[in-house]
Amino acid sequence: MKRVAVQAGDFDVATELAALEALGGGGVASFTGVVRGGGGLVALELEHYPAMTQAQVDRICDEAMARWPLLGLSVIHRFGRLEPGARIVFVGTASRHRAAALESCAFLIDWLKSQAPFWKKEHFADGAAGWVEARAEDEARAKGWIG
Amino acid sequence: MLTIVYFAWVRERIGLDEEQVARPDAGTSIADLVAMLAARGGGHAEALGDATRWRAALDLRVVALDSPIGDARELALFPPVTGG
Question: What is the pTM assigned to this prediction?
């Protein structure tokens, strides 16, 4: 099972986990990314490159399925305007082996952060706005999975 | 013609989502083509003048800036990604 969704709307974590649990592997790992508030942030605006996003996320998922013995995986990434507390991204993996589920989940979120064509703009209460800068640390984490 | 699409602050500084440019010779690299765009000045220079600050994709695949344009249909220029 490979589920990839790039969507504006919210998703239900319990439904996503249940679909992975139903595969019968016995091990399910997941990561949910949520918009962090504070500092006067009123919203994140996520822009993406629609023609490329689905293809790129598909490639990242295929890479995970080639590297670990997975029964299934789900990747959901939202775009558009998201307020603090809103879910942004979900990664879930199912395997007969907990290490495979946990490691592939970490791989997927690291690669999404540094390879999927999304860009975040922060909007603040005082009207200021600015694009989030990529962090060298995120790129280094993704590269750590090579080899 | 070659379609160039822009995202995030590259898009904002140039003031365009996309534009068509005369197709360069197939051997022209992305870096060379973008240097010509930046030489127009204005938003193009501001967005693209520093080649360490943007990335490129040719026909939906991220590629190195010294890659030749070849027969690609779409070039995308954007800042390093910040999803997840």
Answer: 0.92
